[in-house]
Amino acid sequence: MEQTARSKKSSIVLALDFPFEKPENRNRLLSKAERTLEIVHPYICAVKFNRHLILPLGTFNGVQKLIKKAHDMGLTAIMDCKINDIGSTNQTIAEYYYAAGFDALTANPFVGWEEGLKVVFDVAHKLKHGVILLVYMSHKGAWEGYGQTICNAETDGKTLQYASFAKKALKWDADGVVVGATYPEKIREVHEILGKKIPIYAPGIGVQGGKIESALKAGASYLIVGRTITLAENPAEAAKKIRDLANQA
Ligand code: XMP
User: Fold this and answer.
1) Is the CB of 206 under 6 A from ligand 1?
2) Considering only Cβ atoms within 10 Å of each terminal Cβ, which end of the chain, N or C, has fewer?
């Protein structure tokens, strides 16, 4: 992904999200997703999927076709599944998504290591795939969980939840972390903890109010952009504009 980003001069991860469509219109939805990928791919380095397509198209039906298409275009395919359950369930979820062809998955560190995310990292790293941890989400209520001040034996005092998650990302050997572009000050703090060891993925650009320049200047390596591109009248033009603005930042 790093190589693709460099060669295509793009740090943009396309969130291939579309609004609800009646299930009987799933073929139309698949065609729309294929078409968007075809016209937008010159301006992006990876594509991120969410339930928006998994639910109507199915992991091993429509989505697997899209993953193959993304791979044929040299793009990394990320599943934003935010794994968040007990270990045995997490393992099965991860195995299915990797079997479908995804290169990396997102996971929620709130669930912890033992009998939580350890198995996901074990499966991922055995397959040489990635796990990206949520460290601070992009929505307004993110502070209620990720922004809490916590006190535990491990940290020997008080610390912020997201700072603790950033340290866990280092300890667990995560391949990326997510910090909302809507909180550039949090990106900066997390970047100070991670240095260059783990890249920061910043969603929330455009519709959610995050700004390209402030996210990149604070230390984000990749920008995740969905509706600003997928719902644009001309998605290719929108993606190119964002890519160019990111390169000027
Ligand atoms: P938009 O349309 O807002 O889409 O550009 C953003 C995409 O990213 C997902 N998203 C997140 N994923 N942590 C995540 O793992 C976050 O903080 C976060 N914020 C947004 C969102 O679901 C959509 O697919």
Assistant:
1) yes
2) C
Contact indicator for 107, 86 with CB cutoff of 8 Å:
no
E-strand ranges in the chain read 12-15, 46-49, 76-83, 104-107, 130-136, 149-152, 157-160, 176-179, 200-203, 222-225
Given 48, 82, 168, 186, which residue is catalytic? Answer: 82
Rounded Cα gap, residues 217 and 220, in angstroms: 7
Burial of 174 (0-12, 13-18, 19+ CB in 10 A): buried
Nearest ligand 1 atom, CA 142: 17
Alpha-carbon dihedral angle through residues 42, 137, 201, 29, given to the nearest 10 degrees: -20
Measured in Å, residue 153 CA sits from the centre of ligand 1 at: 32
| Residue 46 near residue 222, CB atoms below 8 Å | yes
Instruction: Give the per-residue SS3 of 69-95.
Output: HHHHCCCEEEEEEEECCCHHHHHHHHH
Q: What is the pTM of this model?
A: 0.96
Cα separation, 117 vs 202, whole angstroms? 22
Residue 98 pLDDT more than 70? Answer: yes
The pLDDT tens digits of the residues spanning 14-39 come to 999 999 999 999 999 999 999 999 99
Give the residue among 6, 26, 40, 4 at the shortest CA–CA distance from 16.
40
Q: Is the C-beta atom of 56 inside 6 A of ligand 1?
A: no
d(CA 103, CA 67) in angstroms, rounded, equals: 9
Q: What is the DSSP letter of 63?
A: I
